[in-house]
Amino acid sequence: MANNRTYTMIKPDAVSAGNSGAIIKMIEEAGFRIVSMKMTQMTKEIAGKFYEVHKERPFYGELCDYMSSGPIIPMILEKDNAVEDFRKLIGATNPAEAAEGTIRKLFAKSIEANAIHGSDSDENAAIEGAFFFSAVDQY
Ligand code: RTP
Ligand code: MG
């Protein structure tokens, strides 16, 4: 498959714990090229927009509070089979169920504060990347 892209963000728990560097190293060692990267913080309203697809789920309010509680590091990544391979690298949503050696197994604190995000489809990767980065950043 040709090179394609996914969207990720290192979540507030991993940034505040000082694990960003170790996580970025794992991402690069797994063969992903960092296309775009920055540090920023979402307001609760912006987190609400980003997670609008989850608005009917019981954890939506808490998730938006949590994701706006501190700095995050959004990135666009490139690799062949990027979306699927990145979901493998990060592991299951719940760190208790994440495979050994995955980013969430190593760094996640809980099912909510689970260190990192990974897009679940090519279509969502494009939507999520464009939410955080303008066209000129996505070189
Ligand atoms: P992500 O979108 O962050 O890559 O995570 P995911 O696909 O593995 O999980 P998803 O179902 O999309 O959920 C989005 C995020 O919501 C939080 N969550 N909390 N309290 C709960 O039961 C619960 N379930 C999910 C997590 O931060 C999850 O990553
Ligand atoms: Mg998801």
From TrEMBL:
UniProt keyword annotation of Cytoplasm present: yes
Recorded family membership: Belongs to the NDK family.
Catalyzed reaction equations: a ribonucleoside 5'-diphosphate + ATP = a ribonucleoside 5'-triphosphate + ADP; a 2'-deoxyribonucleoside 5'-diphosphate + ATP = a 2'-deoxyribonucleoside 5'-triphosphate + ADP
Primary site of residence: cytoplasm
Record-listed E.C. numbers: 2.7.4.6
Cofactor: Mg(2+)
Task performed by this protein: Major role in the synthesis of nucleoside triphosphates other than ATP. The ATP gamma phosphate is transferred to the NDP beta phosphate via a ping-pong mechanism, using a phosphorylated active-site intermediate.
Record-listed ATP binding positions: 11, 59, 87, 93, 104, 114
Record's keyword annotation contains ATP-binding: yes
Biological-process GO terms, alphabetical: CTP biosynthetic process; GTP biosynthetic process; UTP biosynthetic process
GO cellular component, one term: cytoplasm
Subunit note: Homotetramer.
Domain Nucleoside diphosphate kinase-like: start-end pairs: 3-137
HAMAP family noted in UniProt: NDP_kinase
EC category: transferase
Gene Ontology molecular-function annotations: ATP binding; metal ion binding; nucleoside diphosphate kinase activity
UniProt protein name: Nucleoside diphosphate kinase
Catalytic residues, chain numbering: 117 (pros-phosphohistidine intermediate)
